[in-house]
Write a structure and sequence with these properties.
Length: about 200
């Protein structure tokens, strides 16, 4: 079984994916794959430097994600160019990981932790779409704690994403991650038990 987990910036989709991992799922994290692809000397990092300039690389030659983020989130056309470059490479790596999991265990439950699961059409490839939601104030507070970004930048990034109200329409399961960790864990456990039957 393949479960796709998505949500908005700061809703906690990766938290939910990790909870599923602790229950026995094999988690494939699109952001972690993207980090690997942006490492020093990688073909993707070199193409990003050609596209956006060498100043997007840090002293080791890896892509400085924070600097690149400031550039692309201020320019929707630049964000589209970046996505066209990075997303195919991420998808190839994810497909390879799914194939490896299925080869090891045909009955395994794999979780795709993908921010753009719906926008990129990957929701069509999974058996269950899980959308993680949280109130906007919770999203902003979490992102601010994690990144230190100014509220105006956080709000701009959230607005550039598909609204959670639209993502909900694609969901087989909605996990409300706006409350306590225990409440989220309870929802995730119910999801796990229902899909393992």
């Amino acid at each position: 079984m393949l479960i796709g987990v998505t949500g908005g910036f700061g809703t906690g989709k990766s938290t939910v994916a990790r909870m599923l991992g602790r229950l026995g799922a094999e988690v494939i994290d699109a952001d972690a794959i993207a980090h690997e692809l942006l490492a020093a000397g990688s073909p993707v990092a070199q193409r990003i430097a050609r596209m956006f300039g060498a100043e997007v690389l840090d002293v080791r030659g890896a892509v400085d994600r924070r600097h690149l983020g400031r550039l692309v989130f201020a320019d929707p056309a630049a964000l589209k160019r970046l996505n066209r470059l990075v997303h195919p490479a991420v998808r190839r790596r994810m497909r390879a990981q799914i194939a490896a999991i299925r080869q090891r265990n045909a009955q395994a439950v794999a979780v795709l932790d993908v921010p753009l699961l719906i926008e990129g059409g990957l929701y069509r490839t999974v058996d269950v779409v899980v959308v993680v939601v949280a109130p906007r104030r919770v999203q902003v507070a979490r992102i601010r704690r994690r990144t230190g970004l100014p509220v105006a930048q956080i709000e701009r990034r959230i607005r550039q994403q598909m609204p959670l109200s639209r993502k909900r329409c694609y969901a087989d399961v909605i996990v409300d991650n706006g409350g306590s960790r225990a409440a989220t864990q309870q929802q995730v456990r119910r999801l796990w038990e229902s899909k393992k039957k």
